[in-house]
Amino acid sequence: MKLKGITRTVLFSFLILLALGSAASARTTVYDGDIEEGEVYQLNNYVIEVTDIFPEAGTASYYVYERDRKITTGLLDVNESFEFDFEEEGKIQMRLKSVHTGGVLPRATVEITMSNYNTGDLYTNEIIERGRSGASFAGDPKLVVTKSTDKSEIEVGDVITVTVNARATGNDAAYDVLFTDPKQEHFVLKETTYEVSTKMPKIDLGQSVPETLVCIYKLEATEAGTFDLRAVTATYTNSAGQTYQSSSNTPKITVLEGDRQRADIETTLNVDHLSIKRNEKVTSTIIMRNTGNAPAEAVRLDLLVPEGMEYVSGDEGIETVGGKPRIYLDSLQPNNDKEFSYIIKATEVGKYTINSELSYEYNNGIDAQNIRQSDKFSTASISVKEGRFDFLLKNPLYIVIPVVILAVIGVHIYIQAAQGIQILRAIKG
After folding, report:
1. CATH numeric code, 26-134
2. pLDDT digits (tens, 9 = 90+) for 341-367
3. In the chain, what are the domain boundaries?
4. What CATH superfamily is the domain 265-385?
């Protein structure tokens, strides 16, 4: 039973493949009728010319041309046929069905079929009564699109002028031409001087035809670096309506930093001790320096004191907001620095770092809007060890209280003894 099922599946698949193969190789009749001697039959850029028709001999000669290039020639008897390659993968076959008189010139009845080609792609499929001289051919146009700039090296904030031109080459004019120029990164459009706003009906072919101006516009550089301008794409057709596409060159533009201004605040956090005991204090020093060439504005530094440590006090420039210390400066000029000190106390044993969050803004001298910056800084690790009397906290009260009492008694005895010795010395003296 299984074998029968497999056999049926294989047979069914074979039949499908056979049907597909037959469909792919099937011939389509594109013409079945008479051709008078001297007439030609045109299929796109191919021409079949029938000459030397001899009804008494039942023969006719043929010539096949692709535009002006002769592909093949020969002599056919009635019911004979010949075949030639058509465009990329197609095949054309012509069969001589009969030859006869019936007018001024003899006529041949032919059947023209084609395979491996979509007949919907035929843009010319007709008899040309005037012969080869009456055939017109669709060429392969080629638009050469050129993108040029007035400068190749500029500074941030400078403006370049971009010009796009097009020229038709190849062997046909370009029709229904549409240009697409994508938005350019790292630049902003400042002005459009000229632009082809709609689809161009035609760009003629010929050496005497001047270049077609597509657009002129100006770009302002917003970022330093070396950049390739994006290509302009042209989509167009030939005289037969076939679609083509071309792309322009991509000019390289080097943008230098130039006089663009920048604020850059470097912050250093130091502490006077890296190892302390619990309940001892540490003094931390903050140095903020603007190493840039633009003033830093709205400068804010938040000190993040960790749990296990507490803020005690600081310089006048340090304010406390919601229990958290903060430094705020309206501005910090280039090559200037500010120094602040504050004190923190260790309340728990452990290892700690004091973190800070910095934020400020500045104007680069080009853009209207200020640029915001932020950064984070930390002190070195601070080690907090047990204090002198921390051992008392580790023991239960029934041990701590007697120890304290004994210590008090011991101190009292020591004081009394010392006083007694002084009295004896006074008596002897």
Report:
1. 2.60.98
2. 999 999 999 999 999 999 999 998 877
3. 26-134, 141-256, 265-385, 391-417
4. ntegrin, alpha v. Chain A, domain 4 (2.60.40.1530)
pTM of the model: 0.51
Question: Mean pLDDT over all residues of the chain?
Answer: 87
Residue 17: predicted pLDDT = 42
pLDDT in the model for residue 101: 87
pLDDT value of residue 301: 96
* Model pLDDT, residue 399: 58
Name the more confident of 397 and 204.
204
pLDDT-wise least confident of 172-176, 289-293, 384-388: 384-388
22 has a pLDDT exceeding 50: no
- State how beta strands 252-256 and 153-155 pair: parallel
Token readout for 194 is: 């000229």
Predicted local distance difference test score (pLDDT) of residue 323 = 86
CA dihedral 288→293→297→302, nearest 10 degrees, is -30
Task: Name the CATH superfamily housing domain 141-256.
Answer: Immunoglobulins (2.60.40.10)
Q: How far is CA 239 from CA 46, 178, 276, in A?
A: 15, 15, 90
Is residue 176 a contact partner of residue 194, using CB atoms and an 8 Å limit? no
**The two domains 26-134 and 265-385 share their CATH topology (first three levels equal):** no
